[in-house]
Amino acid sequence: MAQLTYADRELLLQTLDSITDEWDGSDAELLGQVFDWAKQLVPTYGFEHALTRDVTSLSRFLDLHKSDDDVAQIARGAMLYVLRDKGDHADRLRQFGLI
Questions:
Q1: Looking at the 3D structure of the chain, how many domains does it have?
Q2: What is the Cα–Cα distance from 51 to 99, expressed in whole angstroms?
Q3: Residue 19 lies in a domain
Q4: Mean pLDDT within 39-55
Q5: Is the C or the N end of the chain the one with fewer CB within 10 Å?
Q6: Does residue 16 form part of some domain?
Q7: Is pLDDT of 40 > 60?
Q8: Does residue 74 have a pLDDT over 80?
């Protein structure tokens, strides 16, 4: 796995911020959509179990750190990224090996 440069990290954070800025729903709606997404996920290659675990961790971060804007913003962006993995944002981040 290649190490991320500071420029890579900045691109990742900017992309997550832009995805979050486009979101007009509540945290409860986002958590519900992520829950529905996880229920519909059919494991075929094995990585899906880790992905579900990670999305669950992000959900917990969002729930526990609502008052910490930085943590909550990153958690929201990452969950929205997973939900919208076939969009333009995903293409910009393919180089990182994300879904």
A1: 1
A2: 9
A3: no
A4: 86
A5: N
A6: no
A7: yes
A8: yes
